[in-house]
Amino acid sequence: MPLIICSVCGKQVSKRAMMCPGCGEPDPANYHLKNDWLGRIFWLFVLIIAVLLVWYQFVPYVSAAFID
Ligand SMILES: [Zn+2]
Q1: In what helix (H) or strand (E) does residue 9 lie, and over which residues does it extend?
Q2: Which residues, in sequence order, are CB contacts of 23 under 8 Å at separation 6+?
Q3: Into how many domains does the chain fold?
Q4: How far is the CA of 3 from the centre of ligand 1 (A)?
Q5: pTM of the model
Q6: Which domain range does residue 13 map to?
C-alpha cells in the first residue's frame, strides 16, 4: 500500500486513509477528494453524451412536426 507523509504532522500514512492516525487530519493525501473530482467529471461527460444522443434522435421529428 503506498504511503505518503502527512502534511500536518509528518507521519507516514496510507494514501487511501480516510484520516491521519497521527493528527486526525481528514484525507491527508487528498486521495478521496481527487476521486470525487474525477467521478464528477466522468458523470458530467456521460450526461452530456446522453443528452446529445437523445437530442440527435428527436430533433428531426420535432422540426418535421413544426414544418408540416
Ligand atoms: Zn498527520
Answers
A1: none
A2: 6, 8, 9, 11
A3: 1
A4: 12
A5: 0.51
A6: 3-67
Residue 37 alpha carbon to ligand 1 centre in Å: 23
Could you tell me which of 33, 39, 5, 7 has the C-alpha nearest to residue 18? Answer: 33
Half-sphere CA count of 26, side-chain side, radius 13 A? 2
Q: How far apart are CA 49 and CA 52, in angstroms?
A: 5
Ligand 1 centroid distance, CA of 18 (Å): 11
Q: Give, for all 68 residues of the chain, the pLDDT tens digit.
A: 789 999 899 999 999 999 999 999 999 988 888 888 899 999 999 999 999 999 988 887 777 777 76
Residues in the chain: 68
